[in-house]
Amino acid sequence: MNNLNSLLIEGIVGSNPVITTSKKGTPICIFTLISKCTFQEMDTPQEDTIEMTVEAWARVAEICDKYCMKGDSVKIIGRLKQNATDSKATVIAHSIEFRPIVRI
């Protein structure tokens, strides 16, 4: 049986991206994503906010470093990676779509 690890999430960039490189010299761009979900529970509106770390690698990291900044609205397609040291999950971004924000 094949396991599926695929993720599509939209949210706001919560921290300015930090660019670094792997031991092999591959660019890595790391930032925080904040995503809110609203739902009804017993006729009462509820909001669930999650904050997660996103890693973009190679060309996606270079694009992210150039165009992404705190407050931007983005859609990310990727996968989840479990961190061995702290048991938190990180999103590995395969694709990032920058969405326009209308500021008033």
Automatic annotation (TrEMBL):
Transmembrane segments: none
SUPFAM superfamilies with a match to the protein in the record: Nucleic acid-binding proteins (SSF50249)
Stored PROSITE patterns: SSB (PS50935)
Entry's Gene Ontology molecular function annotations: single-stranded DNA binding
Keyword DNA-binding: yes
Record's keyword terms, sorted: DNA-binding
Cross-referenced Pfam families: SSB
InterPro entries: NA-bd_OB-fold (IPR012340), Primosome_PriB/ssb (IPR000424), ssDNA-bd (IPR011344)
Record GO biological process: DNA replication
Listed name of the protein: Single-stranded DNA-binding protein
Organism: Treponema vincentii
